[in-house]
Amino acid sequence: MVADASAALFGVPLAFGLGCVFTDQFKAIMADVRRVERWLGVAGPLAITAMLVVGVWRWHRRVETERVDQDRTEVHPPPP
């Protein structure tokens, strides 16, 4: 309870103070936020697509390696 009260004692005036200082610049700040949101909207799907492409590539490479290893053991069985 004391921790919450002490955090509110400093946090609330700080938030209101920052609000008063940046009120005049609010439109510019919101324009920047919207611009960043647009870039994140583009970067997010690109990152997901890149991760999927790399994952599929690694999966195919692993399957091919296992297939080659299996072919080698069929041609030359390990010694007893």
Overview of this structure, please?
The structure is a single chain. This protein is mainly α and 80 residues long. The protein is 89% helix and 0% strand. It contains two helices and no strands. The chain has helices at residues 2-22, 26-75. The mean pLDDT is 86.
Residue share in β-strands: under 5%
Percent helix, as a range, is over 70%
Total helical segments: 2
Shape type: elongated
Q: N-to-C terminal Cα separation, in Å?
A: 73 Å
Major sheet size, sense and barrel closure: none
Cα Rg: 29 Å
Mean pLDDT: 86
Q: How many β-strand stretches? A: 0
Which runs of at least 5 residues are low in confidence (pLDDT < 50)? none
Written as H for each helix and E for each strand, in order along the chain, the element string is HH
- Helix/strand-derived class? mainly alpha
Question: What is shown here, in short?
Answer:
With 80 residues, the chain is mainly alpha-helical.
Key attributes of the depicted protein:
single chain, 80 residues, mainly alpha
SSE topology sketch:
Layout: H1 2-22, H2 26-75
